[in-house]
Design brief:
- This protein is an all-alpha fold.
- It is 78% helix and 0% strand.
- It contains 4 helices and no strands.
- Helix 1 (14-35) runs antiparallel to helix 2, helix 1 (14-35) packs antiparallel against helix 4 and helix 2 crosses helix 4.
- The longest helix has 22 residues, at 14-35.
- The chain is flat and about 40 Å long.
- The chain starts with 13 loop residues before the first helix and ends with a helix.
Length: 91
Amino acid sequence: MDRLDPIEPTEKDAPLRYDIRLLGRILGDTVRAQEGEEVFDTVERIRQTSIRFHRDNDAPAKRELEAILDGLSVARTIQIVRAFSYFSHLA
């Protein structure tokens, strides 16, 4: 019986990973141009902090993420959700 370990990326996944990174960079450039550097920076902080929290089960990252999200205005929350939604659709 096979173990249920996380699947390691393979060489055949490399083109997909490359495309996702490219789309992420293009979306980042678009967010920066349309919404401004501050929105882009907030998206990046949330993304990087979420990765630390998810990958490492990092309790300080969880608190940081909660603080970032709790501090957003409704208008800024809509901008951030829109950016993550676009990335999800692209990926």
